[in-house]
Design brief:
This protein is mainly α and about 120 residues long. It has 3 helices and 3 strands, in the order ααβββα. The protein has a domain of about 50 residues. Helix 1 runs antiparallel to helix 2, helix 1 packs parallel to helix 3 and helix 2 packs antiparallel against helix 3. Bound molecules: zinc ion.
Amino acid sequence: MGGALSLGLCFGLLQKIRSAPLIALISGLVGMLGDSLLGATCQAMYFCPTCQKETERHIHNCGTTTQLIRGIKWMNNDTVNFLATLLELESPCVFSSVWRRSGEHSVDTQRVPIQKQGQQKPPAC
Ligand SMILES: [Zn+2]
């Protein structure tokens, strides 16, 4: 969970931008979404033939070597969490640069909805 760290970093980086809380919120959501997406699509899932169960472990609790049934072999839960945290930390930089370029940090336009920003970022795999 890099949420607290990310939130602190967001406020540190974006304290001059009036929309910082919104960007922090979005970054948190990006991290959460990234975690879910990576977990569902890329995380390695194994099957234990002895217990007839799916597991995240290459060696199951019963000692049996499991078989990879989906995902990427090196993409375990820790890797997914790490990548999601990176995504969460990097997104404020992306959002703030987009924000600055589009001039929406000015007083007149700060209420413009965020839906216009490119938030459909594909997962990193
Ligand atoms: Zn087993």
